[in-house]
């Protein structure tokens, strides 16, 4: 069974239902905690009553600086929403680790951004070095991935689309809410990954709801493809894509064909005029709720509740 770990300003904790037991470790960074699994096991089996989780100020369990890499269009439902047809080449992009924030922190909408979007994603936390050239199979995935986290790949769509700029559009501070739990996996947990269900709602209205069975490139293959050109280290984070249901959707094919005939400035003006009528983009006062878990709660990454506010 997986072991859920929390991080607070005071240190690291193992979660038992609604209570948490302090881990006696000197680890400050996620990578250091992963190297001190014995301390985690001792806390998990201590039998102490612990502290109510509700009393803890929870931080992201992924500490920074670290590498944050993400997969683009990696769920079939998202590919349909985005207007892709046929085979989709695996694509990766980077996010600034300064975008990582806590699971209850406010998402801040920059003043120049009109179209702020959400993307619930499963994050893989590396537990061992992944050198360039590594081939990862399903069997040896546990040798590289230490655990899982719930993430939200918040995106400034107007920046992303007009500039073709993924790095900027997804790297503003607060654009990667992470946690609350780091679920440290045992080898027997990995066969259950496809049962994980990703859900996201805004103000209680469901927006995204899919399992990993909808995923196009699964974790072992994703790490193999990434390792063709990128090495990873313990504590680094790979976001594995989002399912359908985001605010951004491709226009109908006839409209898309007409738009292709327009000069770029007119095309984007027309597109964003139509997007301005879409009520699903995030606005000040919204609250995003996200969860990832298996139906039997064998793996449960907890719940994020992140309010949205405009930059002041």
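Q: What amino acid sequence fits the structure above?
A:
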């Amino acid at each position: 069974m997986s072991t859920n770990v929390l991080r607070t300003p005071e240190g690291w904790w193992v979660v038992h239902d609604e209570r948490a037991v302090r881990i006696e470790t000197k680890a400050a960074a996620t990578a250091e905690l992963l190297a001190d699994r014995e301390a985690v096991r001792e806390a998990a089996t201590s039998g102490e009553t612990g502290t109510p989780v509700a009393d803890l100020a929870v931080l992201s369990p992924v500490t920074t600086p670290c590498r944050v890499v993400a997969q683009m269009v990696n769920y079939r439902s998202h590919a349909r929403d985005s207007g892709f047809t046929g085979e989709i080449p695996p694509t990766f992009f980077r996010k600034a680790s300064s975008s990582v924030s806590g699971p209850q922190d406010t998402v801040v909408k920059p003043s120049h951004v009109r179209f702020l979007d959400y993307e619930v994603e499963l994050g893989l936390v590396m537990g061992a070095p992944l050198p360039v050239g590594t081939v990862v199979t399903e069997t040896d995935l546990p040798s590289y991935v230490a655990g899982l986290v719930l993430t939200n790949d918040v995106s400034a769509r107007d920046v992303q689309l007009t500039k073709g700029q993924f790095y900027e559009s997804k790297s503003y501070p607060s654009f990667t809410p992470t946690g609350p739990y780091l679920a440290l996996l045992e080898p027997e947990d990995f066969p259950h990954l496809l049962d994980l269900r990703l859900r996201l709602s805004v103000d209680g209205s469901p927006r995204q709801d899919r399992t990993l069975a909808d995923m196009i490139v699964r974790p072992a293959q994703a790490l193999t493809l990434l390792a063709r050109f990128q090495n990873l280290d313990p504590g680094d984070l790979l976001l594995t894509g989002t399912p359908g249901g985001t605010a951004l959707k491709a226009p109908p094919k006839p409209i898309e064909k007409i738009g292709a005939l327009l000069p770029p400035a007119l095309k984007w003006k027309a597109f964003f005029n139509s997007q301005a009528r879409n009520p699903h983009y995030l606005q000040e006062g919204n609250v995003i709720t996200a969860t990832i878990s298996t139906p039997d709660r064998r793996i449960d990454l907890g719940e994020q509740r992140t309010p949205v506010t405009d930059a002041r």
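Q: And what stands out in the fold?
A: The chain has a mean pLDDT of 93.
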